[in-house]
Amino acid sequence: MNKLFAVIALGSALSLPALAQMTPAETNMDKSAARMETRNARGAQLTSVTADQARQNELQRCANLPAFYKVDCENRVNGKGEASGSVIGGGMIRETVTTMPKTELDAEMQKIQPMTLPAQRN
């Protein structure tokens, strides 16, 4: 009986970190997306991405940016500019610098529409 209780307690203790990682409050995912991601990861249904697919995904993220930011984003994806940091340290920081006259910068800044964030889900 004590062995059974110990096994149940150990199993419960080991599963707590997995449950804690899945909570949507800690991420930007809703509950159903978090559960689907967990289910797919456990079922080994996540697919690997080729280098070409990863590059296309990176460029696709730049596509919705205003033209003012899009060129710099694409330059960073293509390896131009400076990179620092590490994946282990929290991520790679890629930086490009664009020099332009202040009047042109002000005109570009006026074109940018304010961003409306979606309401937080509980």
Give a structural overview.
Strands 1-2 form a two-stranded antiparallel ribbon. The protein has a domain at 51-109. The mean pLDDT is 77. It has helices at residues 2-22, 31-42, 51-63, 67-77, 102-111; strands at residues 82-86, 91-95. The protein is mainly alpha-helical and 122 residues long. The chain is extended and about 75 Å long. Residues 28-49 are annotated as: Disordered. Keywords: Signal.
Order of helices and strands: HHHHEEH
Number of strands: 2
Strand adjacency order, main sheet = 1-2
Structural class: mainly alpha
Please bin the fraction of helical residues.
40-55%
**Between the first and last Cα atoms, what is the distance in angstroms?**
41 Å
